[in-house]
């Protein structure tokens, strides 16, 4: 199989972990006789520094022509006081919108061997294996008007959803649930918001098409509680953009393995952008200590979701698990025992085992 | 001191825990020679059943004439499929707005003796003692338009804040921080939302007036993580209505003592409505097993914030703590050891010790 991949390393530890993913993908290409070609483009802070904008036209164009996109991370204190249009995050929001990546998939699973690094008690977090499906191109982060009013003395943002936008993400979530344990939790604030009422209506309609999926509705405030008190009760959670932003980050720290969590942002046709959940971590950038696992697992998600290469994806995932089970971990896992390794060493161990 | 208190017992376990609070307040009145008079009014589901509306005019009028209001809980499955204007929650949103209760204060503290009931590891949650200050009458839950569009095929909600609305809640939070450990965390999504940018500006301006309070800004998604990984880093958190809704519920389960958490919803002049954080718990209503502590501690907050009766409030709080330290707990605390008691017994123990 021949595939062209655009890499957007971005800021902070982005370039380091991107190197790791590229090395792993090259190994997979060799082992399975594929041909992956790579092209690197700027996004975020580095794009602002080099090209004066967080999302250069050349970057967008390259992504649109690619078979898939890998993204490292964007942002850092250097650009924090920039005006809105010159902030690294704009690059990320922009590329999601331009590519139509409406479905953000965030699987969260505890690695048995790392559960001791969780802030939760082991008996609470044990067995947790959930997937958050977040709507990514609608809602409050994109609605208009979003502006100052009354000479800057007030401000407004708009939460807007069309039925079609809700239908496609809910559909995606049902499909995921069907392939997993057949349980879907839809999160909204239907006791207060109009958009949430529409959301709930759509879920109720769609469930007719998926009679083998069990559906429950949970209010966002209750969901924020349940994720902590009983995370293993969830299979697939589907929710709108902002609730998904908050809940998926909340969920990402439950298993103690934030540095291991990948994500996929998908379009209807399977095209996607893949990025680790952890951010740019400017404090450890360039030190060679960053955890490359989330980026490597994001590459595995790319193989599965955009290229249909399930076996290759499985090989990466199983290899990572076996290395972690072998006791190797990077500095982000604060726990006694095991052997601490750097970014390069961790990557090499994974490559050697593939 | 003579004070007139309106009680809104509401639904589920509301009436039971309200009885407990009333008994404790009567004991305090006797011991300290105050005269508290009580009047009960309908709100929520019971108001719908009896008077056809979740917030009867008589209830509003009574609250406006009172010195303070105690609320039990609203809601239950019975009214879940009602149309918007006939939902119990409307009563709660309505009374907050009508009384101008813009500042919701939610103190969250771990009771040493109950920390073992926390889903978090004891070393993570230990020492946590934070106050969430949530804006309660603005933002997405009240903004207009909030409606269906395109023949019901789309929906919109509006997040609106004026500078004045932000200033008064931020001021309140700074005052709280000053009286506590002098640390304020303002939570927003200023990398995306216009309203959050205005919010951050106001916080930056206000901090000039409170040079002895240390201020940090945290994005809402990061805040959702940090509450779990390191809750004891926070002193006072201030945030807008919806973020506050989600984060305060998330925070409420950290210490394992949800049934112990009170809240105050205040106006500028100190008038307030006081309610437990736990909901109406319809599954255990009428069984005599509900935990009355959150309601009793809400009454203590009333004595302190609306009546200025600090000593009396302290007596209640210290008594509750000593009873809990004595090993007595209601059925909501799932843990070995101690002695399980019912609502009435717990209340009596507290009264006997006052
Ligand atoms: C950087 C920011 C705009 C972004 C978001 O909120 O969507 C990030 O928090 C994420 O979750 O991917
Ligand atoms: C019942 C609901 C409208 C309310 C809110 O979200 O404000 C509740 O969740 C709360 O937090 O007091």
TrEMBL record, chains A, B:
Quote the cellular component terms of the Gene Ontology held in the record.
cytosol
Please give the InterPro entries that the UniProt record associates with this protein: IsoCit/isopropylmalate_DH_CS, IsoPropMal-DH-like_dom, Isopropylmalate_DH
| EC number annotated for this UniProt entry | 1.1.1.85
Q: Which residues bind NAD(+)?
A: 76-89, 279-291
Q: What does the entry's cofactor note say about binding and number?
A: Binds 1 Mg(2+) or Mn(2+) ion per subunit.
Marked site, Important for catalysis, at 141, 189
Query: What Pfam families has UniProt attached to this entry?
Result: Iso_dh
User: Which Gene3D superfamilies would you find in this protein's record?
Assistant: Isopropylmalate Dehydrogenase
In which pathway does this enzyme or protein participate?
Amino-acid biosynthesis; L-leucine biosynthesis; L-leucine from 3-methyl-2-oxobutanoate: step 3/4
Listed under catalytic activity are: (2R,3S)-3-isopropylmalate + NAD(+) = 4-methyl-2-oxopentanoate + CO2 + NADH
- Domain of life the protein comes from: Bacteria
Q: Where does substrate bind?
A: 96, 106, 134, 221
The record's subcellular location field reads: Cytoplasm
Q: Where is the Isopropylmalate dehydrogenase-like domain?
A: 4-350
One biological process term from GO is:
L-leucine biosynthetic process
Q: A GO molecular-function term, please?
A: 3-isopropylmalate dehydrogenase activity
SUPFAM superfamilies in the record: Isocitrate/Isopropylmalate dehydrogenase-like (SSF53659)
Q: Which residues cross the membrane?
A: none
Leading EC class:
oxidoreductase
The cofactor named in the record is:
Mn(2+); Mg(2+)
Primary residence: cytoplasm
Keywords, ordered alphabetically:
Amino-acid biosynthesis, Branched-chain amino acid biosynthesis, Cytoplasm, Leucine biosynthesis, Magnesium, Manganese, Metal-binding, NAD, Oxidoreductase
Question: Which HAMAP family does this one have?
Answer: LeuB_type1
Tell me which family the UniProt entry assigns to this protein. Belongs to the isocitrate and isopropylmalate dehydrogenases family. LeuB type 1 subfamily.
NCBIfam families in alphabetical order: leuB
Protein name in the entry? 3-isopropylmalate dehydrogenase
Q: Which organism is it from?
A: Neobacillus piezotolerans
What is this organism's lineage?
Answer: Bacteria, Bacillati, Bacillota, Bacilli, Bacillales
């Amino acid at each position: 199989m021949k595939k062209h991949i655009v890499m957007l390393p971005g800021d902070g530890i982005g370039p380091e972990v991107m190197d790791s993913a590229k090395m792993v993908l090259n190994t997979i290409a060799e082992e399975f006789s594929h041909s992956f070609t790579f092209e690197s483009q700027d996004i975020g802070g580095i794009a602002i520094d080099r090209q004066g904008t967080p999302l250069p036209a050349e970057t967008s164009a390259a992504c649109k022509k690619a078979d898939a996109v890998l993204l490292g991370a964007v942002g850092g204190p250097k650009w924090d006081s920039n005006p809105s249009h010159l902030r690294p995050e704009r690059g990320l929001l922009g590329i999601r919108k331009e590519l139509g990546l409406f479905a953000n998939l965030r699987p969260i699973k505890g690695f048995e061997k790392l559960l001791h690094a969780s802030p939760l008690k082991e008996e609470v977090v044990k067995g947790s294996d959930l997937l958050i499906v977040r709507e990514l191109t609608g809602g409050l982060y994109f609605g208009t008007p979003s502006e100052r009013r009354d000479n800057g003395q007030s401000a407004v943002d708009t939460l807007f959803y069309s039925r079609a936008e809700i239908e496609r993400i809910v559909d995606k979530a049902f499909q995921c649930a069907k392939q997993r344990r057949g349980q879907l939790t839809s999160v909204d604030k239907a006791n207060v918001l109009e958009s949430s009422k529409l959301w709930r209506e759509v879920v109720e309609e769609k469930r007719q098409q998926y009679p083998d999926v069990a559906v429950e509705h949970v209010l966002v405030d209750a969901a924020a509680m349940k994720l902590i008190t009983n995370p293993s009760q969830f299979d697939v959670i589907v929710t709108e953009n902002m609730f998904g932003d908050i809940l998926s980050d909340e969920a990402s720290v439950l298993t103690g393995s934030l540095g291991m969590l990948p994500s996929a942002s998908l379009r209807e046709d399977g095209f996607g952008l893949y990025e680790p959940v952890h951010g740019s971590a400017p404090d450890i950038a360039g030190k060679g200590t960053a955890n490359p696992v989330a980026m490597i697992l994001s590459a595995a998600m790319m193989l599965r979701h955009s290229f249909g290469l399930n076996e290759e994806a499985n090989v990466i995932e199983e290899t990572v698990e076996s290395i972690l089970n072998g006791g190797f971990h990077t500095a982000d896992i604060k726990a006694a025992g095991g052997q601490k390794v750097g970014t390069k060493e961790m990557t090499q161990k994974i490559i050697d085992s593939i």
